[in-house]
Amino acid sequence: MSDDNWDLRESYTFDRNVIAEIRRAANTGIYKIRGWGAKRRLPTLDDLVFLGASMSRYPLEGYREACATDVTIGADTATNPVRLDIPITIAGMSFGSLSAQAKEALGRGASKMGTSTTTGDGGMTDEERQSSKTLIYQYLPSRYGMNPDHLRAADAVEIVVGQGAKPGGGGMLLGQKITDRVAEMRTLPTGIDQRSACRHPDWTGPDDLEIKIQELREIVDHRIPVYIKVGAARPYYDTALAVKAGADAVVVDGMQGGTAATQDVFIEHVGIPTIAAIGESVRALQELGVHREKVKLIAAGGIRSGADVAKAIALGADAVSIGTAALIAIGDNDPAYDDDYRRLGSAAGFFDDFQDGNDPAGITTQDPDLAARLNPKIAGQRLANYLQVLTLEAQTLARANGKSHILNLEPEDLAALTIEAAAMAKVPLAGTNWIPGLTPDPPTNQSPPQQL
What we know:
Blueprint: H1 16-28, E1 33-36, E2 48-50, E3 71-73, E4 82-84, E5 88-90, H2 100-112, E6 116-118, H3 126-131, E7 134-139, H4 148-153, E8 156-160, E9 172-173, H5 180-186, E10 194-195, H6 206-219, E11 226-231, H7 235-245, E12 249-253, E13 259-263, H8 264-269, H9 274-287, E14 296-300, H10 306-314, E15 319-322, H11 324-330, H12 338-343, H13 368-371, H14 376-400, E16 414-416, H15 419-425
Parallel strand pairs: 5-15, 6-7, 7-8, 8-11, 11-12, 12-14, 14-15
Antiparallel strand pairs: 1-13, 2-16, 3-4, 9-10
Helix pairs in contact: 2-14, 6-7, 7-9, 9-15, 10-14, 11-14
């Protein structure tokens, strides 16, 4: 841009988006609520690459040599541990934020691939229990829909301490999505906005949590594993305390994790990226001597591809959990409904007003006419197809690194493309042995001193 047009140059600090948000806030006096996840540029798993096997390591041959993908959770404590065929699970998303058809579709797709889905806030629906071979029951601070009989009917329980999109904050469900059925399940008035608590009412720390885990194990007669889910803020300490409390698995949810509804300021400004959170959780597990053995680590927050799956596992996770990607797979933001999205002031690929309940795809809605647009059988098959691709991609990368089981991937198989990613993931910057913060600074380009 020439100096003559300097006055027309957009401000970096106050660009048009910032100006628009200031004006919106000034006009309404209401903070912005939306769904989806962080939209700012953050370091992601794309900033890592696999080194692959060549001379120093020997690759496995294509599809002729097996690469296993199974994961078992709770083998030491539960009489019925969770056994997954693939290391990709479906994250907790509530009936209320999602339609009953969407919950059924998630169960169908996960079951086809031998993995688990999760209830979310508000309790268990018949649709998802019947369609899910392995169903994880979330136990949240709100206790909405908490039913001991449903807990006993689950295959694991996940105690939610925090969520990646809003660590330190509770959930939201606006009144237009609280139908008679949702209200009955949550013991709430119909049509009134609901805000979930941000902390559990009956414990204030890890000692109380240990008692709660023992109580839950007694309710289910020690049959099923117990997970603890934390939003990635202080993952080293949170993971260590979860282990102390007796968790069979820790779910660490990075700030790229999605949500159906929360304050935009939470989504964009609270928590740390997934790439940084995994390593910190792994460090805690390793120091306690339970990594890869007694306690499993499930990484969540912005997982999109088989490469993401394999990289998260190489960093030390035992499995990953997907939410936003699963919704896209079953039909969220479908271009077929672009005209409908535009009538709502958005467009296919950009729609994030999940809180309003007007989703044309019938996924994040309680409107019966919109929800009827989603065929659970077709949507479930789409999810299964997507999970199959993720698994095949992850296996391909594992074989290329000489691994006969995907859980044999390790940090030594990775390099980072940026200094930020190297520091967060604690793997060397590509072409060097330098890990910022862990190894000495890289040598300068100065010539060595001449010998006398």
